[in-house]
Every structure is written in C-alpha cells, then in structure tokens.
Amino acid sequence: EADADRCLDILNRLDECSMSIQTLSETLVGVAVSKCKTNSDADVASKAKSLVKKWKQLAKQSGIATKKNNNNKDNNNKSRGNRSTPSPAKLTISTETEKEWKALPPGRENMCIKMHETFRMAHA
C-alpha cells in the first residue's frame, strides 16, 4: 500500500506540473506513466490513465499525431531516433535518494530518473 501511495503522490505531482510537448518528448515520462495504467491499485491506474489522456490531448492541440492516430510507422521510427534522452549524469539527485533508487529494480530506477528529470524541466 505504501508503494501505491507513493506512486499516486508522484502522479499527482506530475499532474500539477506545467507540462510541455518538449518535456514529454525529451524525458519520455509518458512511457513510464503509461505502464502505471495497469497497476493493481485502482487509484494509481485511474490517475495514470487520466494523465496519459491529458498529455495526448496536449499533443493533439499542438498538432502532434499520437501513436494511436499515426499509422505511418516509418515516420514514428525516424522521430524516435532524433529524441535525446537525458543522461543520469545531468541530474542533480541527493545521495540519499540515489541510494534508494539503486535498491530498486532497473526499470523502476529508470522511471524514477525520468520523473525526476521531468519535474526539473517542468519547473525550470
């Protein structure tokens, strides 16, 4: 239950961030949040679905085709190659937090790093 509360807190904080298409594409945080849509905790799953829907709407308003609406796989693959994913070296993470993240499975550690970078970029 503590993990679910923590996830929900992170998702709520992401919802409060002023998100841009640039931040979403550079951090790929949408990929991490999308994985939470199948979380066993109904509140976490619901919040993740809501965020993904909100960000897809933002993309649509910006004139960017979402994956579901874009049937041209060649264009999708080309655009992915141009994205730059922030390197962990660029982040300023406290030692305590870094130790906690290192104890997580690799996928969760990467998700934490992406979300941290998203928060940093959204508040820059």
UniProtKB/TrEMBL annotation:
Give the chief site where it resides. nucleus
Indicate yes or no for the key word Metal-binding: no
Any keyword Transport? no
Q: Name one GO cellular component term.
A: nucleus
Q: Provide the alphabetized UniProt keywords.
A: Nucleus
Q: Where is the composition biased (Polar residues)?
A: 82-95
Record-linked InterPro entries: TFIIS/CRSP70_N_sub (IPR003617), TFIIS/LEDGF_dom_sf (IPR035441), TFIIS_N (IPR017923)
Q: Where is the TFIIS N-terminal domain?
A: 1-62
Question: Where do the record's region annotations for Disordered lie?
Answer: 59-96
Q: What is this protein called?
A: TFIIS N-terminal domain-containing protein
- Source organism per entry reads Eucampia antarctica
